Amino acid sequence: MDPVPPRFQRRLWYAVAGAGLFMTTACAEGARRPDYDAWHQSVSALSLGPGGWVQTLSFFAFGAIVLSTVTVWRRILAGGKGAMAFPLLTGLTGVSLVACGIVPQDPAPGYDPMGLALTAPTLRGLIHLACAGVAALSSVASLLVMARRFRGDPSWRGWSWYSMLMAFAMAACVVVYGIWSTASTGYAGTFERLALLVVPIWGLTFLLRLGSGAPFMHTQQTASC
Fold first, then answer.
1. What is the pLDDT of residues 147-199, one digit of tens each?
2. Total domain count for the chain?
3. Would residue 39 count as lying in a domain?
4. Exposure class string for 19-48: b at 16+ Cβ within 10 A, else e
5. Residue 143: inside a domain, yes or no?
6. Is the confidence at residue 50, as pLDDT, over 70?
7. Does some domain include residue 1?
8. Phi first, then psi: what are they for 132, rounded to 5°?
9. Burial grade of 52 (CB within 10 A; 0-12, 13-18, 19 or more)
10. What one-character DSSP code corresponds to residue 153?
11. Which of 4, 49, 146, 173 is the most buried (most CB within 10 A)?
12. Do 100 and 26 meet the contact criterion of CB atoms below 8 Å apart?
């Protein structure tokens, strides 16, 4: 096993930076909307009403950045566990984020900037929920795949449990968000944001470990890069 070349690490840092930009944009957009409650409302709700194009563009940009890392992950993981599954799940997450931008959600309880007053979910809203669900499930699954990759590797002792714990934390936050999002008040948006932060935090710690020189790539794969 050899360390990951810096040029690959840089590409992965872009995804962490993209997640930070995505969350920063959501915070800025939420702060400037007087009727929007970030504690309760989802990030997707920012796609509704005047100025919703900003959040839509943010979904597109973040999804594209995530998709740009797929080929890097394939090179880094080649020859080991998760070499096919993790890049596939990462690509699925990226596509789902882009789809969430293309298909906005329905107005949520407590936030209806266009005054639609829907009494039942629309097909568009259901598609958005499905895309968001795919993004969440693929992210959780990707952490579990990496947990399997780390298992038994003495250079990454404890990382298998860490990755499983992060997967559990994300799944728990998504479930709490799903339950609370049906109410007009509460902290659904808080738990959604916590879920969105799990993978970037995992990615940040992973990249810091790679930057310290921890071996991760198979020797024959490094030689061919």
1. 999 999 999 999 999 999 999 999 999 999 999 998 888 999 999 999 999 99
2. 1
3. no
4. beebbebbeebbeebeebbbebbbbbbbbb
5. yes
6. yes
7. no
8. -65, -40
9. middle
10. -
11. 146
12. no
Give the whole-angstrom CA distance, residue 153 versus residue 149.
8
Average pLDDT, the chain: 93
User: Amino acid identity, residue 123?
Assistant: L
For residue 2, what are the β-bridge partners? Answer: 217
CB atoms within 10 A of CB 201: 14
Nearest alpha-carbon partner for 1 in 62, 90, 105, 78: 78
- Which residue do the tokens 């969350």 mark? 23
Start-to-end CA span in the chain (Å)? 14
What are the CA-CA distances from residue 70 to residues 10, 84, 106, 128 (Å)?
14, 10, 31, 23
Q: For residue 172, what are the contacts with CB-CB under 8 A and spacing of at least 6?
A: none
In this structure, are residues 45 and 54 in contact, taking their beta carbons and an 8 Å threshold? no
**Structural domain for 136, as ranges:** 6-34+44-224
110 three-state secondary structure:
coil
User: Residues 132, 174: contact at Cβ < 8 Å?
Assistant: no
8 Å CB contact between 159 and 215: no
pTM above 0.90, yes or no: yes
- The CA-CA-CA angle for residues 6, 12, 16, to 5°, reads 130
Residues contacting 206, CB < 8 A, separation 6+:
none
The answer to whether residue 85 is domain-embedded is yes
